[in-house]
User: Fold these one by one.
Assistant:
Number 1:
Amino acid sequence: MAPSSKLMMVPLLALLFMSGTLEAARASNDTSADGTDHYSRSPGANGSASAPRGRLLGSSSQSVFSLDSYGARGDGSHDDTQALARAWKAACTSPRPAVLLVPSSKRYLLKVVSLSGPCKSNVTFTVKGTLVASPNRADWSDKDRSHWIVFRSVNKLTVNGGGAIDGNGDKWWPHSCKINKALNWLLFSSALQGSSNGFVVPLLHQFEGGGSENYEQSTDPHVGRGLHQCAIERLSITAPGTSPNTDGIHITRSKDVWVTDCKIKTGDDCMSIENGTHNLHVSKVVCGPGHGISIGSLGDDNSRAEVSGITIDSVQLYGTTNGARIKTYQGGSGYARDITFQNMIMYNVKNPIIIDQNYCDKAKPCGEQRSAVQVSNVVFKNIRGTTITKDAIKMNCSKNFPCQGITLQNIDLKMQGGMGNTESTCQNAKWSKSGTVHPQPCTATN
């Protein structure tokens, strides 16, 4: 079933290096957390103020814990990391549902911080002000370079508020090997990571700068165990088209995820969908600039990949490198199947429809190998628009594992400005068509 409007966050969430701002959309039921300090201090035994305790807001069942009540300065220059940690501890141990409040009109400078559960009650992380990542590279070790704010073992966490998360990612882009070839490491620029069992609603409105929403599973305790039954909505990500490795939304090892009403401008894939993703539903996404929406890459370094049940629906792409794309390495194994790209409009896209089972982005050419990730049961339906290259449809499939069950239905892709005719190229692809398909699919399947 589709997720409800009031959802829960998952056990692990990591807010990582980002540049610019990520703004959380104001939740419809978030009328009481208005950014003011809703706290009282009760006198201690000696007449001094005791530890802050949450005052109930709007409902007798909810307590609010403000960063300012735990020593935060909010001036953008003093370190407020420990204040956040203290506020989190109080919220997490609250016997009533709690709101951890980042007050409005302030900037809270943060280094790496881990916020752990399990919590006694549901927690809502309401960001009304701005959380700012330290721009000082000395504050980030090799171990935590890809992490900033990490939630561990937390069930039923909701993120909202209309505020901003500023990750200062532009300080890191020049140090990526994709920018500086003399360097030997690639900058990770993920924004959110999550793990299992629950709903996730970042309800994030605007994010400017290099980063991605990264949901994945790993044995690495910093990464988590994948998302299940999650929703990501009303998210806007903006990064320069030249920013390195800045996938907008990156999903892997996740199941039953909904992504809707998102606007993404990046220097890499607007969405990348990788190994272990099953039953993903994407709708109403606007993409560009960027590399488009990609399933893959899959099968890297002879690995096994399994992806199924992917629906990409009602998407607009502006000036992207690719449109609807599946990419796998030779040498991999596994499958990418039951995939639908439908109701897509493309404006001046370089490769509108592309399947590439010979993908390679290595420094050295990838040698030919016999095995491959099997691509099957893929539908491209109701796709129209313009391209800047003649090859509007490309199917470059494996000789040993041909693409099976590729359906083209109601396709209309023309050259930008009417400058010539579009074409299609196919290798080792078994396809069928229905309705009007322009350009005509390949005249042969080999």
Number 2:
Amino acid sequence: MTTTPADQSPVAAALAGLPRVVDLLAARAEEHDRDATFPYQGIEAVHEAGLLTLTVGRRYGGPGGTLADTVRVLAQLGRGDASVALVTAFTLLRHAEQARVAAWPAAGYRRLLTESRRGPVLVSTLHAEPGGRPGELPATLARRDDTGGWRLTGRKTYCAGAEALAWMAVTARTDEPEPRIGTFLVRGESEGVEVDPTWDQLGLRASAGHDVVLDAVRVPAELALGLTVVKDPSAGGTGSAGDRAEGGVPAAELTRAWRDLALAAVVLGVARSAADWLVRFLHRGTPADLTGPLGGLPRYRCALGEIEAQLVGAEELVNGLAPRVDRAEPEAVARTGPAHLLATRAAVSAVQQAVTLTGNPGLSRRHPLERYLRDVLSSRVHFTPDEAVLDAAGRAALARGARP
């Protein structure tokens, strides 16, 4: 974590460094996308600006960044490099959850923060499994060992930043007669952890979302968090300590709401970069049969206006909900699922329209627009499926209608 000038709050100091960081990320984004190499220098820049630990709670000596701060930061980072923004998002989400429910043991979290003062420390929750479906028990298995700890075996997929993770919060079930589900904290350098380089997606190519294979990885007993018997896994449960948070909102629901809006901010940042590039193209582009740039034609202005309207609506939705989630308003927390779905749709639609307007230049690898399109399309890997969001929204609407 970085030091802060006396006349600035830690959050303000971190936000002040955002423009420079975004410029640095944008300068290297094409190279990392082309070669599918992990952006270590970009992560270092985010860390040095104090952005990677923005959501460390004040009780731990951190800035105490809110969700409103987080979506602002991630939208800007998304403008520079979507892969860096995505990996940053997962680390910020873990620190924010710790600030709310203090799930990590004190000694372990102090160790993480000490390491964060020396350099960037990436943390992420590893939940998805190959072939896994919503509502299923995790296939990753935790068995007791002769020390009283656990041995973790399984495979996790879509693990953004896999090759650079210092800590992995792995969702697993125990092999007990009545299985429990919880989160097992694993050091990335632990014996038995292997990164299988499976990530070869169309977009987010620098995010290193590889599979992580765990082969009897030892986890001390104190690093097994929130072990709970879950009769119906689809009903919730993240393995986090603390059943309820402020305002009577379940901790798991706040965790989901943070994730919904944080990841939505990333894709909106990418879409904003696409819109900015389109504006520059319309200012410069002058076909042979015209005397002025394309931006002078009503058809192109209206099309650009359509893109702008979509993005303004999505940004206002995300930015408006974030402070309400910070206040733990139940109605706002319940709306973040539909909000992330609408924001993602708006981002994808905006970039697709930009590509259509520009024609061949928009699809050329000499320009970043085609990368923006690939990135917003690939971001869906990390979102709740549309069907699940819509089903939950429909159920909630039916429940409201059934009330007297």
Number 3:
Amino acid sequence: MHGPTTAPGGLPPACDFTVFGGTGDLALRKLLPALYLRDREGQLPADTRIVGVSRSDHDQAAYREEVRAALLEHVDADRLDDAALDRMLARLHHVTLDVNGSEGWHELHGLLKDRARHEDTVRVFYLAVAPGLFGSICRRLDEIGAADANARVVVEKPVGHDLASAQAVNDAVGEVFEESQIFRIDHYLGKESVQNLLVTRFANTFLEPLWNSHWVDHVQITVAESLGVGDRGGYYDHAGALRDMVQNHLLQLLCLVAMEPPTYVGGETVRDEKLKVLQALKPMTPADVDRDTVRGRYDAGLVGGAAVASYADDLGHDQSDTETFVALKAEVHNWRWAGVPFYLRTGKRLDRRTSEIVVVFKEPPHAMFPHSEGGSTPNRLHIQVQPDEGMRLHLTAKEPGPGGIRLRPVSLDLSYATAFAQASPDAYERLLMDVIKGNPTLFMRRDEVEAAWAWVEPILTRWAASPDRPRRYPAGTTGPIAAATLLERDGRTWQESDS
């Protein structure tokens, strides 16, 4: 099989965008609203069809009505207009199909072939279904002749639950599609602030000379959620925070912070540099896991002033050892970062919803103002990924006034919402357009996924062998006390977003 005929980065003349799981939560809440918003801006190929595949016994009219209701619910009212909505709905088709059965595939095949110059149409297959179905769907697509050079397949996380299963999933998809046709999506990489991290690093000359172990004391990456597991309890209890968040989202953010400058941003260059970071992570021994990782589980508490239940109550039983919180210390063993710890943490039912990266620089080597009031604090670059995208550079300044020097921490703030006139697109909006254009930069390559699993797996193995259960923490807090101790023993503290 050959690669796609459309040049990467170019908009094809026609596209059939097929969503397996077309009536599921992800499709209705994220994917279809993202496609509507790009269509509203005139960015979809004019000749685009959107095909929802599900087991629902919908005819075309019923599916369009279900999608209309989802768009009205999940798209901001000021971005809804009748002309764009009607154009989007006219693109929709539905095929009733059980991916494990034989019925319906002929109908999908006929629909995809039923267009002028179908051989020049880019076909995107988005697998918004359980990973166990990826292989069988791909084989069926191959059997009906839909997995040709113009096809692209998008797979959601999790790609496996350990290294062996990830390799099995990759093998199954790779039997049908070339690596260049496989787009493993991590929506965090589509966020404006994450991409702006690359621009901040590589388009500003004053930062790059400081971006190394000579000047950086440590790096903190936090992805905190105020919600509990909700209706994902069945899935989450078999995954846990390490698999669900650290193995993909947090390690991808670490890669973007730590990677070497690529030759240019595009194609395979960024993914090559991210892989080098994952390969440079210090392997975790059992002693390292015991010392440098903390796992926790939320108890009942208060979030936003409202009482919330414990994980056991949300799950319906107290027999689980699954973690809802992880904090850990990682090290990148290369020339640039030797000796610089990277502290990662993520959890559910914490005191706020936030995702942030904090680069803490070293303190000045000499106290120049010994008789001043106040004190200097380490400079910090604080990158806010969500909810309020932007960045702050924390400095020490002299407070105005006579009678001596009073030192005061101040910050230079950049809020994307106020600095730029246009609203930032949702991560899925950008990533789906990249799939249509064939641009792989913001997607995970097979070797990246498997390198991340190879690093995480010793932690999972050690935790499974340990008699210790996850440490409890009240909902509405910043996590277990041991997470603070993880930094305090190194003489450091977590940098909270309002500190």
Number 4:
Amino acid sequence: MLVEPSPTEATNWTTNYSTVPNYYITFYDEASNRYYNHTKNATEEYQSFILPWWRQVLWTVLFAGMVVVATLGNVVVIWIVLANKRMRSVTNYFLVNLSVADTMVSTLNVTFNFTYMLYSDWPFGHFYCKFCQFIAVLSISASVFTLMAISIDRYVAIMSPLRPRLGKRATLGIAAAIWAGSSIISSPNIIYFTTDVDVLPDGNTRRVCFPEWPDSTSEKPQFEYVYNVAFMVLTYFLPIISMTYTYAKVGVELWGSKSIGECTQRQLDNVKSKRRVVKMMIVVVVIFAVCWLPFHVYFVITSYYPNVVTYPYIQEIYLGIYWLAMSNSMYNPIIYCWMNSKFRRGFKQFFWCCGALGGGLSRHRAFGPDRLDRSMRSFSPSRKNGTSLFKTTVKTTKFVKKPPGSPHLLHVNKLHK
């Protein structure tokens, strides 16, 4: 199973610790085309996965920080879109779907799997062994399929601008289909994951959570290998190829083509807005590809070379690979805040409302395009930290120039009453 921590692979070896001090691990040597047994002491094998206390503290800090940032950031993204009508676009609905998946993996999976990897013991029970692994594959699949849906939506909107856009119902239908398909992909984990108790020679016990596939007792099991390869193809290579194609075509259309005749300011602003969204989504996809590539490569390597899991420091190597893959869930909110002014204002408002930055909002603002109300020409909106302050004067009223990003007021300098 792809999301199972590497050290737990040792739990798949059937042993009887109550009668013998050592056990045999069966490996397949492709060079000689034969199987051979390797003797291991069970207690030594178990203890080799227990890190020194200071390393445990270091990894705990890294994982805890990642979980907090990912959970808080994605919850804020969901709040920004759902609490503001002007943010409820097709792309933003898909971003909410992506944030829900990322929140699920950070809260319902990462903490429990990390604890299992750190202590080589599963204290969370039989049901959660199945549910945790199910949520892992479910959220990963939903995330990548949502990214694909966003890329296809951007492709259609830019390459066929006259084609009707997706409505709210169609968008929600696609989101439901994404979760349904992801549930099907993840369903084998509910069926085949189970728990067991290993008794070590020194009398200690440890609980293990592992997949028990139909052919697990065979000399060369194939069921898990086929599932891992299929999962990797469906949730990594095919989506990356698809998104590379769509964003490449969109990039050529937005940056490479030149329109005939003069463009109005509104048309230029529309192109700039589309470019900003596409650039943000390209960054999201690139970060996703980088974070998950080592994870998939690791399991491909261990499938062909099982001895890798017994190498020195393999526990910390896998912890690093696992942290990098799971940290993808915390990067997306950071990217939205960095590359989108509306999300940036939303994050500021959220923390202001929570009192995290001190002071409150003098007036709640929507996150959509600002519009100049003709009935309020005597007021001057001053932009500072995303709030609207109104200043009146006796003789003149000045419109303070808006910062870049609101082109409809860029041409206004002063307006005399």
